């Protein structure tokens, strides 16, 4: 009698002759600094076995046993690199519409601050977000996030901050959570509580901060809508006292602090953020000695956003000063309609090398392992190891890792695995 067994279909892909399998190391326990930060461990002429979207084996082709696999599962990768996808730990990817008209104002000579003063900037984005329903904002934002995943991003943080009223901030956070439920990469949600003063609080920052502390934050916490909280610490926006107020308001909750700080001026925000155990401080285009001393003594990651410097024509963060002091750095896109209208992390890789003098390896570590730490996904993303379930980038043929940041504004992606 014929016995019919249930058929379990395991999907297996066996990639062979990979020119280089990049960033092969177990999940790191700490962000990379020093010697570890300088190198990207890789296996040349390698194979990689994926089963049910999980890396189950890899190694040098010399140790590849073809007898173990069906010929039709083998995929030849001659000349191509395979890299773990980037982690983007700082984006504002949910917004209503781009601001290319301000781009033209900028070309004509207006500064970021002048554009903001004439009703552009964050308040402009807020008006458009406020005019949309939750469904509309979701429908507009989802394809934007799908496109950045196709560009090589495998883990993502998204901030609110263009709502500027409690209900519109909650709307943004719900949209981010819906995007997260829709997609197969980890997405972290940040409540950007104090981004700019809403019109009705124009000359009443204290009143606004009272609302944030006593109403907005408790609401976000009780609805469980965010992983992180953020604010814009900058002259004319918010300051170190506001960092302290927010840090106090989240005590006892699961929210962790991130801060936009030192983009244009150094006003003591980094010291305050480090004191309050911020996971990351982001921007850091302008740094004074006190900031470096504070970062050196703490555990906060310095997240640098060179695409913002490029677009706004402002200084690039003095990354080498941070690296020389052993401070862990991450790189992110800051994708947003006002100061960084790109989510392309290959471009950020190029800018970090060309403008901030990071080596290709240092910059890649900053875009993967260290960025994973800056968004709390370090146990699962940022490097290739047995059990890795994240996305992998298959590149077009290239001579070496340095080719990717060198050939800037070039499409390097052949396809994605997973
Ligand atoms: O990270 N610096 C503050 N926030 C954003 C820009 C926001 C905007 O202009 O829309 C940033 O650069
Ligand atoms: Fe930002």
Write a concise keyword list for the protein shown above:
Urease, subunit C, domain 1, binds N-(iminomethyl)-L-glutamic acid, alpha/beta, TIM Barrel, seven-stranded mixed sheet, eight-stranded parallel sheet, binds fe (iii) ion, 418 residues, 36% helix, 16 helices
Structural class: alpha/beta
CATH architecture of the largest domain: Alpha-Beta Barrel
Mean pLDDT: 96
Bound molecules: N-(iminomethyl)-L-glutamic acid, fe (iii) ion
Structure description:
About 50% of the residues are buried. Helices cover about 35% and strands about 20% of the residues. The chain is globular. The chain is of the alpha/beta class and about 425 residues long. An eight-stranded parallel beta sheet has the order 6-7-8-9-10-11-12-13. It folds into two domains: about 10-85 and about 380-415, Urease, subunit C, domain 1 (Roll); about 85-375, TIM Barrel (Alpha-Beta Barrel), CATH 3.20.20.140. The protein contains 16 helices and 15 strands. It binds N-(iminomethyl)-L-glutamic acid and fe (iii) ion.
